[in-house]
Specification:
alpha/beta, ABC transporter transmembrane region fold, Rossmann fold, 3 domains, four-stranded antiparallel beta sheet, 22 helices, 10 strands
Length: 603
């Protein structure tokens, strides 16, 4: 289906692990097929050997004693065999369906586990470029389709092939002449099905693409529903989704139309084959070359002969979907993370917080540089602020420090070690971060705070909350620290969310703390208390601020001023004001002041 080595390895590994169950399912499947092939034969015995009293063939001489007792006992025996075949077939079918369904769900579990782990390893550039809805479609819908293909549909296809071959052998044994009548329809049927299946595959590919677009659009709107409602754009978003939905509808209708054509073509060929069999079979019965029971069996097989072909035609449409799904999942599994660990990477532990950028060049896209030969040195324990207009490169510096991206040129060092030489997970464990856009999970407050330290004790959670001035409002909630908050913290205010994020950073006791305006959503009094708490918690440790609001700038040991991806000024607050350069302009603009002398006195 797919050319992905990783996907094949995952599926092959799972199926090899359950080969015993697969063998059991295959055995049950063969048994079900055998009972279906034997189903018409009791009727032949009733018609030819009980009602018409034809002599028994050598293979059925064991029924002689029953026929000598009259017709009632043989009829009871034959009727009982019909019921026995049904019970046996039903029992085998139950075990086969149960086993394959279990294998299928286990395969979905394995696929999603591996895919989720792979997605988390992929670089941010991948997640920024690929719509979330597209990823969700592959993760949920495509993996389920693959499960059906490799368990349910594959065994069904195997069953149909067995049934087809078994019926053909029996039919050829009964009458090779009538078998040729049926076979006459197969070449034409095969050609028609080949072209229809190619058409199905094309429409299915288009359908899956449209479904991914719909999910992306839906995820985008629902994640920004407050903005949509605030601007009254519900109608506009409905029309946008309508455009994507129409494309999906057209592709779905085309697939359904082609699939229905497969069923119709098979039904027509079945009717032609049955008509020819009845005509030539009846002629042979009249000539005494066949028993009526043989004709009955032959007609029953002919009517069932095309059913596997029809079902295989339907399955081909499903396999076409599975092929598309396999390729989509394979594409994702084949994406390699851009951020890789070198062999023997160092474990980052108890870092001193010495940060260096040496001629760092970075851009998210080709021919678009965000950081242009940026160099600076932050000594251990320093409090440093990054200031600059939007798009100057402040957040990009933080992303490089966390090694969410690697620079195209230059080096980023922590404690005089190139950060590419550290294990990523250990490096990020040593760095605490509080973003301006708060990110919380739909879990308890305690779980959200301890996210940065899963083994944290309740006392550590409480201490971190007290430092972040979150303890009092948490206790006021219905269930305190056990209160479940809504997705993305929707049941809390902006200030409450920010304090919980701050507590989550504090609980790690990080060697380096990165803060993206951590007090933007709280009142001035709380902001002052939180800044004091940060100073206390991070005493002697490196702290890096992105400052959007110029409050208490004199407290920073160093201020780095960015403009157009370059550090144009650096120094203390007063040193930068004395230079009367870009920093002074930014500070005056925010303070609403125009006189540099007044500005200096405010600082």
């Amino acid at each position: 289906m797919a050319n992905s080595l990783k996907l094949k390895q995952i599926i092959r590994g799972h199926l090899l692990g359950v080969k015993g169950k697969l063998c059991l399912a295959a055995f049950c499947l063969v048994g079900v097929t055998a009972t279906q092939l034997l189903a018409p034969w009791p009727l032949k015995i009733v018609i030819d050997y009980i009602l018409l009293s034809h002599p028994l063939p050598p293979s059925l001489t064991f029924l002689t004693s029953f026929l000598q007792e009259g017709t009632v006992l043989p009829l009871l025996v034959v009727s009982g065999s019909i019921a026995l075949l049904a019970i046996l077939g039903g029992s085998l079918s139950y075990f086969q369906i149960y086993t394959t369904t279990k294998i299928g769900h286990e395969l979905v579990y394995v696929l999603r586990r591996e895919l989720f782990a792979h997605l988390q390893r992929l670089s941010l550039s991948f997640h920024n470029q690929v719509p979330t809805g597209e990823i969700l479609t592959k993760f949920s819908g495509d993996t389920t389709t693959l499960k059906d293909a490799f368990t349910d549909w594959s065994l069904k296809a195997f069953s149909h092939v067995l049934m087809f071959l078994g019926m053909f052998i029996i039919m050829f044994t009964l009458s090779w002449e009538l078998s040729l009548v049926v076979l006459f329809t197969l070449p034409l049927l095969g050609v028609i099905l080949f072209f229809l299946n190619r058409k199905i595959l094309k429409s299915v590919k288009h359908q899956r693409r449209q479904e991914g677009k719909i999910n992306s659009r839906l995820n985008e709107v629902l994640s920004s529903i407050s903005l949509v409602q605030a601007f009254g754009r519900e109608g506009y978003e409905k029309e946008r989704l309508e455009v994507e939905s129409v494309g999906s509808l057209e592709a779905s209708v085309q697939t359904a139309r082609t699939t229905a054509a497969v069923t119709t073509v098979v039904a027509l060929m079945s009717a032609v084959g049955t008509a020819g069999t009845v005509f030539f079979g009846a002629w042979q019965v009249l000539k005494g070359q066949m028993y009526p029971g043989d004709l009955l069996i032959f007609v029953a097989y002919v009517r069932s002969f095309f059913k596997p072909i029809r079902d295989l035609g339907k399955l081909s449409a499903r396999f076409a979907k599975a092929s598309v799904s396999a390729n989509r999942v394979a594409e994702m599994l084949e994406v390699e993370p851009e951020i890789l660990e070198i062999p023997g990477a160092l474990v980052a532990k108890n870092l001193q917080g010495d940060l260096k950028f040496e001629n760092v060049v970075f851009g998210y896209q080709e021919n678009h540089t965000v950081l242009d030969h940026v160099s600076f040195h932050i000594h251990p324990g320093q409090r440093v602020a990054l200031v600059g207009t939007s798009g100057a490169g402040k957040s990009t510096i933080l992303s490089l420090l966390l090694r969410l991206y690697d620079p195209q040129k230059g080096l980023v060092k922590i404690d005089n070690v190139d950060i590419t030489h550290y294990q990523r997970e250990s490096l990020r464990h040593e760095i605490g971060i509080v973003l301006q856009d708060t990110v919380l999970f739909g879990a308890s407050i305690e779980e959200n705070i301890s996210y940065g330290k899963p083994d944290a004790t309740p006392k550590e959670v409480e201490d971190a909350s007290r430092h972040a001035y979150a303890h009092d409002f948490i206790l006021a909630l219905p269930d305190g620290y056990a209160t479940i908050i809504g997705e993305k913290g929707s049941t809390l205010s902006g200030g409450q969310r920010q304090r919980i994020c701050l507590a989550r950073a504090f609980i790690k006791r990080p060697s380096i703390l990165i803060l993206d305006e951590p007090t933007s959503a709280v009142d001035p009094e709380s902001a002052s208390l939180i800044r004091d708490a940060i100073t206390q918690v991070q005493e002697g440790k490196t702290t890096l601020f992105i400052a959007h609001q110029f409050f208490s700038m004199h407290q920073f040991d160093q201020i780095l001023v960015l403009q157009n991806g370059q550090i144009v000024e650096h120094g203390s607050h007063q040193e930068l004001l004395d230079q009367n350069g870009h920093y002074t302009t930014l500070y005056q603009r925010q303070a609403g002041l125009k006189n540099p002398l007044i500005t200096q006195s405010v600082g």
